[in-house]
Amino acid sequence: MNKKMDIPVDYMHRWQEMANLMANAAGVPAALVMRVWPEQIEVLIASLGADNPYEEHEMADLGTGLYCETVMATREALMVPNALVDAQWDHNPDIKLNMISYLGVPLVWPDDSIFGTVCVLDSKEHQYGLPYQQLLRELKGVIEDDFRAICELAPLLSSDARRLRFESVAKVLRGNAAH
């Protein structure tokens, strides 16, 4: 899949609203949609809130032990209730931002390649109950449905296709104006 494919603004706005709702529903400062690049991961969408330490388009190096790296590598959900008391996670870089709990799921393109993750993080211990886990899986499903639509639209959004559509419309308009 073309990792550099632009995400249309309409989808980005929808994902922003969903991230905001997820953060509010889970009672956490951060809900994120992350996008992986060859050597980094980007905060594509960050819930809006005064306590969210992540900023949109912020980049982090891969290979540093981020929660998201494990989610992408395993293609499985990950829940870390409190990284400070978990030897596997007590060195996680997100702890420097006071984000000690995590719940995340992988996001996968229609061709089965990894896009990134959708996740929530909290500054306190958090046992993410089944409703939050289900809500996050639903959000994953919506975003992955959007990926399919984006991939179907991609050929229509190319500059050549736009030019041809514009020329066709202009020709019809000129023909109508002549009559």
Describe the structure.
This protein is an alpha+beta fold. The protein has one domain (9-178): GAF domain (Beta-Lactamase), CATH 3.30.450.40. The protein has helices at 9-26, 67-74, 130-157, 159-178; strands at 30-36, 40-46, 59-61, 78-80, 101-108, 114-122. Strands 3-2-1-6-5-4 form a 6-stranded antiparallel beta sheet, sandwiched between helices. Helix 1 packs antiparallel against helix 3 (130-157).
Question: Briefly, what is this?
Answer:
The protein has 179 residues and is an alpha+beta fold. It has helices at residues 9-26, 67-74, 130-157, 159-178; strands at residues 30-36, 40-46, 59-61, 78-80, 101-108, 114-122.
Name the descriptors.
single chain; alpha+beta; Beta-Lactamase; globular
Query: From the alpha-carbon coordinates, what is the Rg to the nearest angstrom?
Result: 20 Å
Task: Encode the helix/strand succession as letters.
Answer: HEEEHEEEHH
By DSSP, the count of extended strands is 6
Indicate the low-confidence ranges by residue numbers: none
Count helical runs.
4
Walk me through the topology:
Layout: H1 9-26, E1 30-36, E2 40-46, E3 59-61, H2 67-74, E4 78-80, E5 101-108, E6 114-122, H3 130-157, H4 159-178
Antiparallel strand pairs: 1-2, 1-6, 2-3, 4-5, 5-6
Helix pairs in contact: 1-3
